[in-house]
Amino acid sequence: MAKFSMLTGGALLFSVLGVGPASAASAYGSCTTSPLTSSGSVNIANWPYEGSATGINIKLYDEKADGHHVRVRLAEQWTTGDRIYYAWRKNMDGYGTYKSWNTYMNPAGQNNKINGIVLQVATFEGDTLLQYCEKKLFYPG
């Protein structure tokens, strides 16, 4: 019983002092290529100032019956402006279809901080990029 009380008291102390995990923000962004051939979005549920961004959902839509395929990717943006690009994800299923992926980001930047997350949506013919759009999201916290 005494052991339980000490653990509970410790938990209360941390709660009162505000010690614990850093708070995290959420963010949403989307973009559409012009002329309209592809669109995509990113929803970030848990974006702490330091550490991994988790609960990320990416969506990609093929908006035109043109025989091309569409891709989406994310990038970390650091306070220096440098970026680390993640791999492209593809939707090869054709016009009117969309794909969705759940993912996370482990920061590789300075001080373990992701200053911005960049969404890129593109239309490709084979491995040739035809057009793309980009949405920059900055840490909202």
Counting helices, strands and paired strands, the structural category is mainly beta
- What is the average per-residue confidence, as pLDDT, rounded to a whole number? 84
Instruction: Report the biggest beta sheet as strand number plus sense, adding barrel if it closes.
Output: 5 strands, antiparallel
Number of helices: 1
- Beta fraction of the residues? over 45%
Shape: elongated
Q: Give the proportion of residues in helices.
A: 10-25%
Ranges where pLDDT stays below 50 over 5 or more residues in a row are 1-21
Rg, please? 20 Å
Termini Cα gap:
41 Å
Compressed to H and E, one letter per element, the order equals HEEEEEEEEE
Compact overview of the structure:
The chain has one helix at 2-17; strands at residues 24-32, 38-48, 53-62, 69-77, 83-85, 89-91, 98-105, 116-125, 128-138.
Description:
The protein has 141 residues and is mainly β. The protein is 11% helix and 52% strand. It has one helix and nine strands. The strands form two sheets. Strands 4, 5, 6, 8 and 9 form a five-stranded antiparallel β-sheet that branches. A four-stranded antiparallel β-sheet has the order 1-2-3-7, with no helix packed on it. β8 (116-125) and β9 form a beta hairpin. The protein is elongated, with a radius of gyration of 20 Å. The termini are far apart. Mean pLDDT is 84; it is low at 1-21.
